[in-house]
Amino acid sequence: MLLDIHTHRHPSKWDGQSIINLSVGEEGFTGSPLLRKESDVPISIGLHPWHVDGGWRGQALDNLIPWLSLPQVAVIGEAGIDRLRGGDTTDQLAAFEYQAQLAKEAGKPLIVHCVKAFDEVIHLHKRAFKHEAWIIHGFRGKSEQAQQLLREGFYLSFGEHYHDEALRLCPTDRLLIESDESTIDIETLYARAATLRDTEVEELKKEVNKNIKFLLKKNNI
Question: 184 — phi, psi (to 5°)?
Answer without folding.
Answer: -85, 130
